[in-house]
Amino acid sequence: MSGTFTRYLAGRVFGLLVVILALSAVVFFLMHQVPGGPFTFEKQPLPAEQMANINRKYGLDQPVYVQYFKWLWAVLHFDFGIPFQSPTETVGSLVQRAWPVTIIVGVITITISYTLGILFGITAAVWQNSWIDRTVTFVATLGLTLPSFIIGFLLVYILSVKLRWLPTGGWGKPQQLIMPVIAYGLGPMAIVARYTRASMLEVLRSEYVRLARARGLPWHRVLFRYTLRNALVPLITVLGPGIPDVLTGSIFIEGMFSIPGLGRFFTSSAQFRDYPMIMAMMLLVALLWGATYVISDVLYGLADPRMRVGGEVR
Amino acid sequence: MTTVDFHPDTLAADENAARLEAANSPLRQSIQRFFRNRLAALGLVFVVVITAGALLAPLIATTAYDYTVLKDALKFPPCADPKGSLPFPDCMFAKYPLGTDAIGRDFWSRLIYGARTSMIVGFSVPTITLLIGLPLGAAAGWFGGWVDATVLRLVEFMTAVPSILLALFLLTLFGHDLQNVILFQGITGWVGVCRLGRAQFMTLRERDFVTAARALGMTEWSIMIRHVMVNAAGPIIVMFTLGIPGAIFGEAGLSFLGLGVNDPIPSWGKMVADSSRFASVYWYLPMIPTACIAVTMLAFSFLGDGLRDALDPQGQR
């Protein structure tokens, strides 16, 4: 059993690495193929000699495949280069500076939205078709369909512009976190609430719950001991993918509330043709997503014995 | 003593049964199920209104959407203007029914043409994803083996980075305009359709009617198109419909960031971004396009959900 599991895990990790390698190659060649470069300025173009100097300094005068392998070699030694948009630091230190901000927002968002989502989902399922259920379903639909920047804009307009309760944006004070977290978390909360509700209803209708009720077990015991456990397992596949999404930061949320996180570098890096930064962001995103998929599949296998059929997980 | 049962009453009963069956054909049942869902019907009404508005934009718009009159910049809507001189019904037919934006363009006309932009994106992007994803998914599910393995690798590759980020990356690199917004959203967004097509073709391949059709000598191609496609159509239509709000959201979001359509083409997302600076006084300037995006997305989502319940009664949420 453990042998097949190790082999399965090794296979998944290997597959992930292959995908990331392929992706990095495609992105690298693609960004070099597009006309123009990081130091091509339309308004005041640099003299040819200076251009040649800069290109030589950053290795941009070499063939693309040479540049790629050099980059790959450096990355394997944890050297991600120097960001063109901020040449006084390294990509590593830039990420170290900006990412914690994004992670703080992300962790708060995920914690609050997942907790509330699960609680709302359970409540809605237990009192199915009551006003609570209808309210939860309605809010969940809004949260699922409305884009975060629309929610963010409405919050800014109502809470900051009209009521003047909260600052429109910025970083450093706890109250500056309120609106980003709401705007960001409503979507994940809605998804989780909806899935929890559906999953709970399915389990509540199952025969063993009916049997437990028929045998006279107290309702709270049936709910907490038998229903919740089984209902929450399928949620792993829903909860998982939300995490890398939030941990890499939202361009919309961070831009709208001027949070100095990682999100804005998704656009600025591509705009400045900041090759090292583009590649670093790509690696970060791909690794986070890939790891989440692998981890949630493994967790699913651990939590639900039915998914563990020899090596045939999934 | 056997009596051959050809009594006229029995015939009439048969006919009745046939009529009943026609009245309860699967299509009619689906339509009934759809309209029993009030939200879905409401969604359909809104979708029809918005689509009609987008199609008839030149007739509904009062002026050209890109016509700038700088001296008329930031005019209030005549009916809500505190210094307005026109009484109520007349003010609705004034020059700028909803006032003007920051550089003096008619807001109403931009809103209507913005609907057109949203609809173009909303219908084109799912079409592209369908054209890429469905053949790939169908081939993977139908043929299995190395075809399936190849497609699955491709899908895995595409899911390594979220599609909106990939689209964003391509747009910043290759330049952004309406065409590229559609193209890149389509190129990066086909994974869902591909997965669905694969699952559908995989399960339908094993069904008895496919074996029967093959035994009767139908070619693989005609089985795929005449039998499997028809049976897979429901979920695929639903996915297409639910892809529309996604595409509209994508365009609005990209335009909001300044990476979507370019001036002078109006886009609701861009209108929100451009006018949010004036929100403290001209609150309706960002608020109306916001409401438009919200209503359109809700309408298409309700429509899609309703279609799912109507076309696929056994389907689970």
Describe the structure.
The complex is a heterodimer of chains A (about 325) and B (about 325). Chain A has a domain at about 95-275: MetI-like (MetI-like fold). In chain A, about 70% of the residues lie in helices and about 0% in strands. Chain A has helices spanning about 1-35, 50-55, 65-75, 90-125, 130-145, 150-160, 180-205, 205-215, 220-230, 235-245, 250-255, 265-270, 275-305. In chain A, helix 5 (about 130-145) crosses helix 7 (about 180-205) and helix 7 (about 180-205) crosses helix 9 (about 220-230). The longest helix of chain A is centred in the middle third of the chain and has 36 residues, at about 90-125. Mean pLDDT of chain A is about 80; it is low at about 310-314. Chain B has 14 helices and no strands. The longest helix of chain B is centred in the middle third of the chain and has 37 residues, at about 105-145. Chain B has helices at about 10-25, 25-35, 40-55, 55-60, 90, 105-145, 145-160, 165-175, 180-190, 190-205, 210-215, 220-255, 270-275, 285-310. The interface of A and B includes residues 19, 147, 156, 271 and 278 of A.
Q: Features of this protein?
A:
heterodimer; A: 314 residues; mainly alpha; MetI-like fold; 72% helix; B: 317 residues; 14 helices; 0% strand
